[in-house]
């Protein structure tokens, strides 16, 4: 009878998890569910307001008809007291018509009031379900966000310890070791060259000493 209740039952029922599984973004999907529920509630509130207004209108018509029945009864008595039997008869005839109308309006009003009460009850249920879903949405939203954070952390941690990362570090380590080996080789070559120069320097000094000794001998300085 009221189509706006259907979506609510879908949202609060067992289909929620299946819908979330299909959703690329559960948080956005939950927000969409809440918007649909709120739209359903607004639609239900409008329907309830109309039904209540209809029930009040029927009640007023019933009370007016009942009041007219009482009035025609008083008028019939008044006409008889005045000796006008024809007027009294017509008042009683209209009284009968109004009484039948009042009975019909009373029955219609009773059904309308029952419908209004039922709608109000279902609207209250919808609002309770909406509140429950709001709490559930907040919980699921927090869980989804926490899961996303854990996923990113796990991805980051797996990247740090991945084979590719290790291989990269090993290549850098080998490169550093190569630089160190080249530096040590360069120092060895420089040390070797320096030793050779020292030997020649010593050799040179030895020749000067011999020449100086010969010169002294020549000059008779010895």
TrEMBL record:
InterPro entries: PspA_VIPP1. Belongs to the PspA/Vipp/IM30 family. It comes from the Bacteria. Pfam families: PspA_IM30. Residues 144-222 are annotated as: Disordered. It comes from Aureibacillus halotolerans. Residues 163-177, 187-197 have a biased composition (Basic and acidic residues). This is Phage shock protein A (PspA) family protein.
């Amino acid at each position: 009878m009221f189509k706006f209740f259907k979506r609510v039952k879908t949202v609060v029922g067992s289909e929620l998890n299946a819908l979330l599984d299909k959703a690329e973004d559960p948080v956005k999907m939950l927000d969409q569910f809440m918007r649909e529920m709120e739209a359903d509630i607004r639609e239900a509130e409008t329907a309830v307001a109309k039904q209540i207004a209809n029930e009040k209108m029927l009640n007023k018509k019933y009370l007016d008809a009942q009041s007219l029945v009482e009035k025609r009864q008083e008028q019939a008595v008044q006409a008889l007291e005045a000796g006008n039997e024809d007027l009294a008869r017509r008042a009683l005839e209209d009284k009968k018509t109004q009484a039948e109308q009042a009975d019909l309006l009373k029955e219609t009003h009773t059904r309308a009031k029952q419908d209004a009460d039922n709608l109000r009850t279902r609207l209250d249920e919808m609002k309770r379900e909406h509140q429950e879903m709001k709490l559930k949405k907040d919980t699921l939203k927090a869980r989804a966000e926490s899961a996303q954070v854990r996923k990113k952390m796990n991805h980051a941690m797996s990247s740090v310890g991945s084979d590719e990362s290790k291989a990269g570090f090993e290549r850098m380590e080998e490169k550093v070791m190569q630089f160190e080996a080249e530096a040590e080789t360069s120092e060895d070559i420089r040390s070797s060259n320096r030793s050779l120069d020292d030997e020649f320097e010593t050799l040179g000094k030895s020749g000067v000493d011999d020449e100086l000794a010969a010169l002294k001998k020549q000059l008779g300085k010895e």
